[in-house]
Write a structure and sequence with these properties.
single chain, 478 residues, alpha/beta, Amidase signature (AS) enzymes, eleven-stranded mixed β-sheet, 16 helices, 13% strand, globular, ATP-binding
């Protein structure tokens, strides 16, 4: 059932919060050993939270999410619950507080912390210290990343909804691979306080749900200014849910010609994308070609800025104040080197080295400063495009979910997985991935992008598309 349907059942006493929680915990115990979507399952805490939630419902004090079982990517701090960021270096870390986004879930029932690429670096959830997550539609394939655990859990009905983070596509790309709705918000729409930093100028909190309406429902609860996060915005929150059914006739959708000219675009995905354009026409939505000329430099720009900020943020994990210290160190230098050597995985080390090089004396101007200039050009492309159209649409991923291990030893090939999602991240724009059928039982999706703080617009269009699609849906194998 959808979140909204479950809310009605809980409020009408057709099911109790403890019963609902037990159903989800039972399914996790049965199914997750095949998927590895959770790092930590909070069985005892969830059962206690469900009892408390039911007490609130019985008193008529329930909030919008009271009693709803959900999951959180293991990069969100959760008070008294282990938070690892998918890394050995934090495998014993238990935060003394919870992230603002978790706090705003109020009396929802936290089922557990989901698997992820270490420190949100990767595109497949294979770079986790706790083993890879598998795609619930094909256990030989990846679920995408870095929020692959969250998307796989929602897809396999191991959580009603989940929270994730999106830095360059880490919600949208795995949402595409797992046939769920993955919503990345405008930078600063949801607080990042209590979210372990990866690349601070790019990180955004996002929402994974089974459908668009559920995403709009959860967004209403989480959006807004937070005095604990200076990057959050005071821009008023829209009524995302109640505006979904308003007509989209007359909207103008732009198709970036550069995106469809990409050499690596699977022709089957392009075919499905063109089919979605026909659905837009039936809805009375205009479709026109646009140009985002600097988007071709987005991937290179991102993989200078992202590793640079990764390098800076991960410098704190030295075994002294942060991170589990290595044993057997005989000097301060050895504490640093052994801790980082043993604690970080290969992808984290790779990005730390790239980022440190880009920020070093003599190279800062040539790489990091230049990348910031190109980032501005990418953002300006979107600004000009939105003078012509209301929404931009593209494929979410250039490929279908790929095989486990297929790209693990080829970082460049892995990085191209986010080629369609990165430009919107560089510009700080809201975007989301919408399921658009299947090819050979593997999910396909489209991405909708809007101007800053225009989440309502893409949710409306996504809702109408979702209601109009008559595409084959993939079937779970778990």
């Amino acid at each position: 059932m959808s979140l909204i349907e479950l809310r009605k059942q809980l409020d009408n006493k057709e099911i109790s919060a403890p019963e609902l929680t037990r159903q989800y915990l039972s399914r996790i115990a049965k199914v997750d050993p095949q998927l590895n979507s959770y790092i930590t399952v909070c069985t005892e805490q969830a059962e206690k939270a469900a009892v408390h939630a039911q007490e609130e419902i019985d008193r008529g004090n329930q909030g919008p999410l009271t009693g709803i079982p959900y999951a959180v990517k293991d990069i969100f701090c959760t008070k008294d619950i282990r938070t690892t960021a998918g890394s050995h270096i934090l495998k014993e870390y238990i935060p003394p507080y919870s992230a603002t986004a978790v706090e705003k879930c109020q009396d929802a029932v936290l089922l557990g912390k989901t698997n992820m690429d270490e420190f949100a670096m990767g595109s497949s959830t294979e770079y986790s210290a706790f083993g890879p997550t598998k795609n619930p539609f094909d256990l030989t394939r990846v679920p995408g990343g870095t929020s692959g655990g969250s998307t796989a859990a929602v897809a396999a009905d191991l959580a009603v909804f989940a929270l994730g983070t999106d830095t360059g596509g880490s919600i949208r790309q795995p949402a595409s691979f797992c046939n769920v709705v993955g919503l990345k918000l405008t930078y600063g729409r949801i607080s990042r306080y209590g979210v372990i930093a990866s690349a601070s100028s790019l990180d955004t909190v996002g929402i994974i749900t089974q459908n668009v309406a559920d995403g709009a429902y959860v967004l209403k609860q989480l959006a807004g200014h937070d005095p604990l996060d200076a990057t959050t915005s005071p821009v008023p929150i829209d009524d995302y849910l109640n505006s979904l059914e308003k007509t989209v006739s007359g909207l103008r959708v732009g198709i970036p010609k550069e995106y469809l000219e990409l050499a690596g675009l699977d022709p089957r995905i392009k075919e499905r994308f063109l089919a979605v354009q026909k659905v837009l026409a039936k809805l009375g939505v205009g479709v026109e070609e646009i140009s985002l000329p600097h988007s071709r430099y987005g991937l290179a720009t991102y993989y200078i800025l992202n590793p640079s900020e990764n390098s800076s943020n991960l410098a704190r994990y030295d075994g002294i104040q942060y991170g589990r210290p290595a044993k057997g160190a005989n000097s301060l230098d050895e504490v640093y080197t052994k801790t980082r050597e043993e604690g970080f995985g290969a992808e984290s080390k790779r990005r730390i080295m790239i980022g440190t090089f880009c920020l070093s004396a003599g190279y800062y101007d040539a790489y990091y400063k230049q990348a910031q200039k190109v980032r501005t050009l990418v953002s300006e492309d979107f600004t000009k495009a939105f003078e012509q159209v209301d929404v931009i649409m593209s494929p979410t991923s250039p490929t279908l979910p790929f095989k486990l291990g297929e790209r693990e030893s080829d970082p460049l090939s892995m990085y191209t997985s986010d080629i369609y999602t990165i430009p919107a991240s560089l510009a700080g724009l809201p975007a989301f991935s919408l399921p658009a059928g299947a090819v050979d039982n593997l999910p396909v999706a489209v991405q909708l992008i809007a101007p800053q703080f225009a989440e309502k617009r893409i949710l409306q269009l996504g809702y109408h598309l979702e209601q109009s699609f008559d595409f084959p849906k993939p079937k779970l194998v778990v």
